[in-house]
């Protein structure tokens, strides 16, 4: 920097002094003609020096400005401050974008052998990048209900969210006719892959299921209160819970998620999306959603994890669904009747009883009576906290009324 200033001063000094020299030598040439040749040489020399200095100044200016104006990196800040910064703050759209050719090579041109799942928005493939990193590639179908808005929503959301119980977004690909999301590869598929398969349920003993329940609750707490954004997932269900190689849960699929501002906790929509059975009554019937809608979905999830049954499963007598069956067994003083038979040898009765109680609190019809996600996490992690008694919900219908309700929701 000092050298740059010296060159600048010398260059400007010669530049402004040059007319004085020229004037001086013009006078000399009139009085002493023999100096004419030497003055011409001097002028050429001075001009050459000025040009050289100007070029040097320009080069120095180019490199200094380039250094000052380049983007600040994480390593720069570490050098300056001696500390690390949140990497999510440095994420840009460019840093997340993948070339289609790279994804095609990673998935063997989206081969059937690499296909690991299919959802409402498209097909998921396993891939391996040239670096050896395993990835999950979500290729959205052309007829997918998830358009550009939901696609961008999921990309922007996941890029900024960092939590061990949330699936990590590695990037995306936008090409003609293609919308692709690239995630970290989660080895053990989704929760429903194990939970509702009689041959795989045995892999989920009580300690594993309890760990999954608490992990999901922690992830949802992060979305509701601990991240920079307040996020309502709106599609929390077993197929959107991925399990890693240690059976830790990771919440996925944020295509339906909504950001709500500031202290706001609820909103309304005319476009009801999600999965029946997991949707709260106020959302399914009227389009009102809030953080308490996610709490309701979590309660349904907990009952499914404990029972090993889908929430739409019909129970005798009375043709009740899982929620009403759980309430009836609770009311009759037989809460353990809903437990999965595979849990008999590994169950912790105190933990199981608390989970059933918490789940029934979460699925209460009045959203004001449901606990916050912070309270859910606290109740799951502390056995000393007393639990409230859940209130019966009026949506415990007969099978016929449930079918009528499903049709009514589908017509909205």
From TrEMBL:
Residues at which ATP binds: 138
GO biological process annotation, one example: immune response
InterPro entries in UniProt: Kinase-like_dom_sf, Prot_kinase_dom, Protein_kinase_ATP_BS, Ser-Thr/Tyr_kinase_cat_dom, Ser/Thr_kinase_AS
GO CC annotation terms, alphabetical: plasma membrane
Membrane spanning residue stretches: 6-23, 44-64
Annotated family: Belongs to the protein kinase superfamily.
Name of the featured protein: Putative concanavalin A-like lectin/glucanase domain, Tyrosine-protein kinase, non-receptor Jak2
Organism, scientific name: Helianthus annuus (Common sunflower)
